[in-house]
Write a structure and sequence with these properties.
One of its GO terms (cellular component) is endomembrane system. By secondary structure, the protein is mainly alpha-helical. The protein contains 13 helices and 2 strands, in the order βααβααααααααααα. The radius of gyration is 30 Å and the shape is globular. It starts with a strand and ends in a 6-residue tail after the last helix.
């Protein structure tokens, strides 16, 4: 759409447009290069910034409905990355809080609630009247989308048996990539960000209409069993087994992947009330302490890269890390029965440090070497 509009009724050629054309005719052809070279250097012509002129009521930048100018250029250009950071921050907070909600209230409850929030917030973004309102809505919308994606991902893994989990995960990833590839074409057809935002809200609303039914998206039986609700788990398993002609009450079929009714009854007798768990309970497990130790090595490797990556270069540090990792792995593999304990521990620590250093540095090195178009 045009950058400038006339807000005077019946004025097809506002006065300032003629002045702009006359001024542009007097500018030499070398001015654009001089303007671009003067940015950040203080030389050449001053940087031009198109601002609204209230004196004549024309030459205003393109404004959105309700008469609110956005002015996301020049000194206000920092608002664009702020909006993007707000959306990513909302996504992060949504993963944390709605992820905990998935464990507390169930996968289906968070999935439906997130879809409802995403639909309403997406429609509200299309009607935002000011930039602060849009910023807040983008934050909340990112959190809702994160909860929807996380609940769907976890429920999909728990509803599929292990041999088919990879196939379903890859298929879902392909649908996500397909949607990302179709988004530029949809934006080209919409030609307006408000219309595009409304179409995305319509898409989440259609998802809510189809996948909001318990028959199409049931609660995860794994979560129900983990929280001590075997009766609901048995009901969902029975509904899932009916299309395949499997009797959920018959535990004699070894090929059936369902939990026998006797085991469900035993679980129900042990915990008559639902038992909910918190992520903080993981502090008492050995797995968390082991993973925390591994993350400690990762942090140490990051500090090592900060000290050596810029001083010695990417390639020497990458080759050195690969060599140390290979030697430590070979010594641990060959000398398990002959080396003392402190030597094994030292080689393990050295190998972990080298492993994390090589992993991080190879990503940076590849990002710097590959061209931007295929990075």
């Amino acid at each position: 759409r045009p950058l400038f509009r006339s807000f005077l009724p019946g004025a097809w050629d506002p006065p300032c447009s003629a002045s702009l054309l006359a001024a542009s005719a007097r500018i030499p052809t070398s001015v654009p290069g001089r303007i671009s070279s003067s940015v950040g250097t203080g030389t050449g012509l001053p940087r031009l910034c198109l601002r609204p002129r209230n004196r004549l009521g024309c030459c205003l930048p393109s404004i959105l409905p309700h008469g609110t100018p956005w002015n996301l250029v020049c000194e206000d250009g920092w608002k664009v990355p702020l909006e993007q950071m707000s959306h990513l921050l909302g996504w992060l907070l949504g993963c944390v809080f709605l992820g905990a909600g998935c464990d507390r209230f169930g996968r289906r409850a968070v999935f439906v609630a997130s879809l409802v929030l995403a639909t309403g917030l997406g429609a509200s973004e299309a009607l935002a009247a000011s930039f602060p309102a849009l910023l807040t809505l983008r934050l909340l919308h990112g959190g809702a989308l994160a909860g929807f994606s996380l609940a769907l991902y976890v429920a999909r893994l728990e509803l599929c048996d292990p041999p088919r989990r990879l196939v379903f995960s890859v298929g879902a990833g392909l649908f996500s990539v397909l949607g990302t590839l179709l988004l530029p074409g949809l934006a080209l057809l919409a030609q307006d960000w408000r219309l595009l935002q409304g179409l995305s809200a319509l898409a989440t609303g259609l998802l809510l209409l189809f996948w909001g039914s318990p028959a199409l998206f049931p609660e995860s039986p794994c979560w129900l069993l983990a929280t001590g609700q075997p009766a609901r788990a048995r009901k969902i398993l029975g509904l899932s087994a009916e299309p395949g002609g499997v009797d959920p009450e018959d535990g004699s079929e070894e090929e059936s992947s369902l939990v026998p009714a006797t085991e469900l009854d035993m679980l129900g007798a042990q915990s008559p009330q639902p038992q909910y768990h918190s992520v903080l309970e993981l502090r008492h497990t050995r797995v968390v302490w082991r993973n925390g130790l591994i993350l400690g090595f990762k942090a140490a490797a990051a500090v090592l890269l900060l000290l050596t990556g810029d001083r010695w270069g990417r390639r020497p540090v990458l080759l050195l890390g690969t060599l140390v990792l290979g030697l430590a792995s070979l010594l641990l593999l060959a000398g398990t029965q002959y080396l003392p304990g402190w030597t094994m521990l030292s080689l393990s620590v050295l190998g972990l440090l080298a492993s994390h250093a090589v992993s991080a540095l190879s990503s940076v090195f590849a990002a710097e070497v590959f061209p931007t178009v295929i990075r």
